[in-house]
Amino acid sequence: MDQKTALEAFAALAQPSRIAVFRLLIRVGPGGLPALEVSRRLNIVPSTLSGHLAILKRAGILTATRHQREIHYAANLNAISELVRFLLADCCEGQIENCSQVLCLLGPSAEAVST
Fold first, then answer.
1. Spans of all domains in the chain
2. Contacts of range 59-65, beta carbons closer than 8 Å, 24 or more positions apart
3. Is the sign of the CA dihedral 84, 112, 74, 23 positive or negative?
4. 62-85 burial code (b ≥16 CB/10 A, e <16)
5. pTM given for the model
6. Quick one: residue 2, left, alpha or beta (phi over 0 = left, psi -120 to 50 = alpha)?
7. Do residues 73 and 26 make contact, with C-beta atoms less than 8 angstroms apart?
8. CATH code linked to domain 1-115
């Protein structure tokens, strides 16, 4: 991931409704949710939500899949992994043993890398 792409992702998330959408879709996992269900759960008017979803999708951090007449949105976990990797690429100038606090946030597999 390059800096321009990372900045687009951060800009897309830099709004309360959009970060709420993103966090909801991260929470529900790779299956995502239909747009109307996102609207219902977050109490965002569908017409307003549509614009937010478009911005997040354009930034590459959401995917959209048509299921008959509904569009399901999901967090693009590969893009999020790349974004985290971009942020942490130079952590502690490569001294991975100094990064244990950050790595523990990423789960047990990341902690195994640091040991």
1. 1-115
2. 59/8, 59/9, 59/11, 59/12, 59/13, 60/5, 60/8, 60/9, 61/9, 61/12, 61/13, 61/22, 62/21, 62/22, 62/25, 63/32, 65/32
3. negative
4. bbeeeeeeebbbbbbeebeebbee
5. 0.83
6. beta
7. no
8. 1.10.10.10
Provide the residue-wise pLDDT of the chain in tens; the chain has 115 residues: 999 999 999 999 999 999 999 999 999 999 999 999 999 999 999 999 999 999 999 999 999 999 899 999 999 999 998 998 888 877 777 677 777 777 676 666 554 444 4
- SS3 track for 41-104: HHCCCHHHHHHHHHHHHHCCCEEEEEECCEEEEEECHHHHHHHHHHHHCCHHHHCHHHHHHHHH
